[in-house]
Structures are given as structure tokens and as C-alpha cells.
């Protein structure tokens, strides 16, 4: 990324004062831009680690005209307890979304484990053959991951890949469903998800079963509502734009990391489908149970930040 050396990143390091630079000059970092350092730092880590891809160094300069390499600036930032990390990606939240999230968390903050255990959390996720990260890094301080300045809000991810659906329950999970090509409308959602998967869990759990899905358009069609009513499936009220409250999001992250750790990552759609099925089947049950036990903490954390993004 391109880092303005005297911009927001450096101005936050207020305690790095009087460090010696090469050549005998002393740099003093203030909250306001200081004329002793100017320029732009280009930081491009390689895909597998911290080595620099380009041998030609972009440099900053001191007032004396002597160049300062990006490695020196990086060391100074690191010495100020700042680290290069990927920004958090979250969906945009309006004040109305935050109020609705806070209300939902107040209603569920005191739920016990057995109450969460009757919920089937579900979601769709898209997996791409190519990474969408573009290796974007930001310099931030410890315990500052969810500060608004360190968050990128976005709705969609591009790239050629597959759309899949899954559900998790305390001590159990659904099979992983991978959609064929084409958009998912209400009819496909009923025929491919609700009838073969959700109805099966409703039959096993009985009346205590509670079904969670988000507010995607295909989830709120007339056909979907009628099918849920005819099958006597109770749906959990869910606040819009709240993937951080849904524990299955961590499952998608787990699958993504498992795919990335493979010696031979999938390069074709068929390989990607098979790899996702294998990793889903191999997912440890303890992971799912741990995620369910985190629901009360999620609610409390969301209330503390008044419905804003939470670090889950």
C-alpha cells in the first residue's frame, strides 16, 4: 500500500521521540506533520512473508536531503508498537442498523447455552479461485483492530468461484450445499435448501427448533414465508447487516484458511468444489461448539460499542 509517512499512521506514534537515524540526524514525531520527514513509502510484502518483492527502494527524505529507506520507516513504526495488518472488512452500518443490532443483543444477552443450542445458524458464502485481498496492509497499533479507521466497508467480493450454503448447530452441522451456476431466487432457496436440509433438522428437533437466516432477498420471498409456515418452522428475527453476530462466519474463515494451507490449492472450479466439501466434512466439532458458546459475549460486546462492528 502507499503510506503517507507524515499522515495518520505516523502521527499516532506520540511516544517515539528522539530516535537516531542513519547519518546523525534526529527525528521527532509530533501529532502535526513535521518538516523533517516528507515523501511516500511503498510497502509491498510478498505473498508468503515479509520480504520485499522489489529491490529498488522507495525512500523518504530528511530535511538534509539524505534518503531514508522504507525499511527504516517500517522499523520506526514497529518500534512505536504498530504493525502491518490487513484491514478488517465489514458491511456498512447506518444508525438504524446499529439501533436494531443493539436491540437484538439486549433481547438475547441473557440466553443460556441450551437456548442457543436449539438455533440452526445458516448462511451463504462465495469462495473464489483468486484472492480478493490484493495484499492490502495497514499500520495499526495493538488492540486497535476494529477502530473505524482500520475497517474497510464493502458489500461484495468479485472473482470466479462458487456459492455455497451451510448450517451449524450445537453439536451438529448440515451437509454443505454448493449451488450450480445461476442466481439464487426464492424458488431455488425453497427447493435446494429449506426442503432437503432445514425441514430435516426441524423434524429431528421438534417444536423447539429455531431457524436463523439473514435478510437476503431470496430468504424473504412469499414462497419462502409460505413454506416455513406450512412446515411449522420458526424463524429467528435477525438484525440486518450483522455477519459478525453469526458464528457461521468463522466457519467460512476456517474453510478459507484450510484451502490456503493446502500444498496444491485448487485452480479449477471442480477442484474448488471438492476441496470445500472435504474441508467441511473434516471440520472439528469442537470448533462449532466453541462458536456457539461465544454468543453471549458477542451480544455483550455489541452493546458496549452501541451496535457498531465487533471483533468477531
UniProtKB/TrEMBL annotation:
Tc1-like transposase DDE domain mapped to chain residues: 119-261
Signal peptide coordinates: none
The segment(s) forming the Transposase Tc1-like domain are 58-110
Segments for region (Disordered): 36-63
Q: List GO BP terms, alphabetically.
A: DNA integration; DNA transposition
- What Pfam family does this protein match (any one)? HTH_Tnp_Tc3_2
GO MF terms here are: DNA binding
Q: Basic and acidic residues composition bias: which ranges?
A: 44-57
Q: Which PANTHER family match?
A: SI:DKEY-77F5.3, TRANSPOSABLE ELEMENT-RELATED
Q: What is this protein called?
A: Transposable element Tcb2 transposase
Amino acid at each position: 500500500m502507499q503510506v503517507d509517512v507524515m499522515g495518520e499512521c505516523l502521527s499516532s506514534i506520540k511516544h517515539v521521540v528522539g530516535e537516531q537515524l542513519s547519518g546523525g540526524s534526529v527525528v521527532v514525531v509530533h501529532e502535526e506533520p513535521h518538516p523533517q520527514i516528507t515523501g511516500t513509502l511503498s510497502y509491498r510484502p510478498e505473498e508468503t512473508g515479509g520480504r520485499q518483492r522489489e529491490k529498488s527502494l522507495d525512500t523518504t527524505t530528511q530535511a538534509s536531503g539524505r534518503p531514508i529507506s522504507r525499511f527504516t520507516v517500517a522499523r520506526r513504526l514497529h518500534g512505536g508498537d504498530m504493525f502491518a495488518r490487513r484491514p478488517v472488512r465489514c458491511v456498512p452500518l447506518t444508525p438504524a442498523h446499529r439501533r436494531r443490532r443493539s436491540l437484538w443483543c439486549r433481547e438475547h444477552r441473557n440466553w443460556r447455552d441450551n437456548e442457543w443450542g436449539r438455533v440452526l445458524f445458516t448462511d451463504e458464502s462465495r469462495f473464489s479461485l483468486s484472492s480478493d485481498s490484493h495484499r492490502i496492509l495497514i499500520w495499526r497499533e495493538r488492540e486497535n483492530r476494529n477502530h473505524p479507521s482500520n475497517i474497510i466497508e464493502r458489500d461484495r467480493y468479485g472473482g470466479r468461484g462458487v456459492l455455497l450454503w451451510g448450517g451449524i448447530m450445537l453439536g451438529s452441522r448440515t451437509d454443505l450445499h454448493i449451488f450450480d451456476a445461476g442466481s439464487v431466487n426464492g424458488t431455488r432457496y425453497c427447493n435446494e435448501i429449506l426442503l432437503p436440509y432445514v425441514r430435516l433438522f426441524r423434524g429431528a428437533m421438534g417444536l423447539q427448533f429455531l431457524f436463523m437466516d439473514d435478510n437476503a432477498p431470496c430468504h424473504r420471498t412469499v414462497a419462502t414465508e409460505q413454506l416455513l409456515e406450512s412446515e411449522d418452522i420458526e424463524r429467528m428475527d435477525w438484525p440486518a447487516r450483522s455477519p459478525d453476530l453469526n458464528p457461521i462466519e468463522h466457519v467460512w474463515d476456517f474453510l478459507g484458511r484450510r484451502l490456503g494451507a493446502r500444498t496444491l490449492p485448487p485452480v479449477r472450479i471442480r477442484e474448488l468444489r471438492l476441496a470445500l466439501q472435504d474441508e467441511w466434512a473434516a471440520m472439528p466439532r469442537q470448533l462449532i461448539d466453541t462458536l456457539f458458546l461465544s454468543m453471549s459475549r458477542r451480544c455483550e460486546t455489541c452493546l458496549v460499542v452501541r451496535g457498531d462492528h465487533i471483533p468477531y
